[in-house]
Specification:
By secondary structure, this protein is an alpha/beta fold. The protein has 2 domains: about 5-70, Hypothetical PUA domain-like, domain 1 (Ribosomal Protein L25, Chain P, Beta Barrel); about 80-240, Alpha/beta knot. It is built from 6 helices and 13 strands. The chain has helices at about 20-30, 90-100, 125-135, 150-160, 200-210, 225-240; strands spanning about 5, 10-15, 15-20, 40, 45-55, 60-70, 80-85, 105-110, 145, 150, 165-170, 190-195, 215. Helix 2 (about 90-100) runs parallel beside helix 3 (about 125-135). The model has no long low-confidence stretch (mean pLDDT about 90).
């Protein structure tokens, strides 16, 4: 199987492709590919390009497109996930699974009960994880990881116009995805998942003011790293592509 690379659309001109940055090192020193070898390139569209390497230099790799095919594995449901920070490497693992489950964007959140209180910037690391996970599961789009760790209020405002807005909350006992009353299937969903201690009642009221609905994930309390996986799988099963 050919090695797959994501390339910004502006680096594909006509049938010529330019690869830069870490991709160059990966091609030259890890894969040890030479001119004449072929790779696969995705460049901001639903086409998968087969590219023959023409020049493999120290700072850039040039190639030519020799074949293209339609390649769309993205879900019709655009899920925008607001995910509270969690301890250790839990956030990293949840991010990987969220990418596999077709999430469109992930916003790291700082909330009242977050154990992690520091704002040490990890967004570059998280973007790299999103890229690597997209390659691993064969996606055509790399999900957006927001530049900053946001507050609940900012996430709610930024996703105000989506079709459906949900807060998965362990204290909700009456409403679930199965009994939501919807006029039509949503095409975009904002999803909020809390930290180890969950959302506070004050935070829940704040989300409701922005039109979010609280929903349950069942009678058992799920761990902070389990809840997003379950929620995304259910959403993709109902309105996406699972």
């Amino acid at each position: 199987m050919s090695h797959k690379f994501f390339v910004p659309a502006e680096q594909i001109v006509s049938n010529r492709v330019t690869l830069t940055g870490s991709d160059v090192s990966h091609i030259r020193t890890v894969l040890r590919l030479k001119a004449g070898a072929c790779i696969q390139v995705i460049g901001g569209s639903d086409k998968l390009h087969t590219v023959r390497l023409v020049e493999v230099e120290a700072k850039e790799v040039l190639g030519e497109i020799i074949a293209s095919e339609e390649f769309d594995v993205e879900s019709p449901l655009a899920v925008h996930l607001g995910l509270a920070l969690t301890k250790g490497n839990k956030f990293d693992a949840t991010l990987r699974k969220s990418v596999e489950l077709g999430v469109r964007s992930v916003t790291p959140l700082i909330t009242d009960r977050c154990v992690v209180k520091t704002h040490r910037k990890k967004t570059e690391r998280w973007k790299k994880i999103a890229l690597e996970s997209s390659k691993q599961c064969g996606r055509t789009q790399v999900p957006l990881v927001t530049e900053d760790i946001e507050t609940l209020e900012i996430f709610c405002r930024n996703n105000d116009d989506l079709d459906l807005k949900l807060v998965f909350w362990e204290m909700e006992s009456n409403s679930s995805l199965k009994n939501l009353q919807l006029d039509q299937a949503p095409r975009s969903v904002a999803v909020l998942i809390g930290p180890e201690g969950g959302f506070s009642s004050v935070e829940i009221e704040k989300t409701r003011e922005h039109g979010f609905q609280t929903v349950s994930l069942g009678p058992r309390i799920l761990r902070a790293e389990t809840a997003p996986v379950v929620a995304l799988a259910l959403l993709q099963s109902l309105w996406g592509d699972l």
